[in-house]
Amino acid sequence: MSSTVRTKGSEAAGPPKKKRKKTQNKSRKQEEKTMEHKTKPLGKKSPTSSSAKKPGLSKQGSSGSLGSPEDSRGTAPDSVFALDFLRQRLHEKIQMARGQGGTKELSAATLEKRQRRKQERERKKRKRRELRAKQQVAEAEKKEEPVKAPPKMACKDLQESGLIFNKVEVAGEEPASKAQRKKEKRQQVKGNLTPLTGRNYRQLLDRLHARQGRVEELRDQDAGKAQELEAKMKWTNLLYKAEGVKIRDDERLLQEALKRKEKRRAQRQRKWEKRSEHVVEKMQQRQDKRRQNLRKKKAARAERRLQKARKKGRVLPQDLERAGLS
């Protein structure tokens, strides 16, 4: 039994240790492979880092016999991988903050928006350059334009020439149209007489009386001129009527219209006064009703106080007067 125990103890002490080391080395190699696969898509891991990790792993392998396999797994490789991952994230955030992030991470709408902004900036720059070039060309043309010499007088040319023939110079004015000529002729016939139009009948009557007074004064001085002025007034009124202007030159009609207007104004005035009186009366009625209601409330409040006093047993002078004891 002792021999069997020794053999078991020797087997447990010797060969199994080698097997455990082999299994630990295999597990470490598998972990390294998985870590390399993880770090390859991130693009941050270099062969130097993997080679730098291997000595650490070998050291761990040598010291793995002393410690447990779980402690050897989560020391150096995990910490290095976490540092690389954090560095990469920091670098990506810095690039995104600067606006230099990778185009693969941006959506198609964002890329299209950037492209449109870039095209708009280029268009504005091009427009500014064109405007600047036009301004420069205009300034250069202004500088190059020679000062025009004043035109020489025609009399000097005639003096220089020995012989002078009959020569008529006509200004190059365009002939007026038929409508323009008709308008000018009509204006000449009208003169400076303003038409009697509008609805201010009192003013129209005053103007009509002033015209009649002027004609009468002119008739006393010169009857012919007075007749000419009357004919001109008639022609002016006819021309204005032909244009569609309503001329109010009848004294009788103007007086009737003025009477109607004053009558309407008087009626409106009476209506307004009646309305204002009605409003004042209504306001007075409201005020009287308000005062009456206030007096009633005051009397009711005093009566409530007296009732409370009677309930408490007080004898009031009003009660004595009613009873005839006072």
Automatic annotation (TrEMBL):
Ribosomal RNA-processing protein 14/surfeit locus protein 6 C-terminal domain boundaries: 109-306
Alphabetized InterPro entries for the sequence: Rrp14/SURF6_C, SURF6
Basic residues composition bias: residue spans: 16-27, 114-131, 261-273
Biased composition (Basic and acidic residues): 28-39, 274-291
Pfam families: SURF6
Subcellular location per the Swiss-Prot or TrEMBL entry: Nucleus
Protein name (record): Surfeit 6
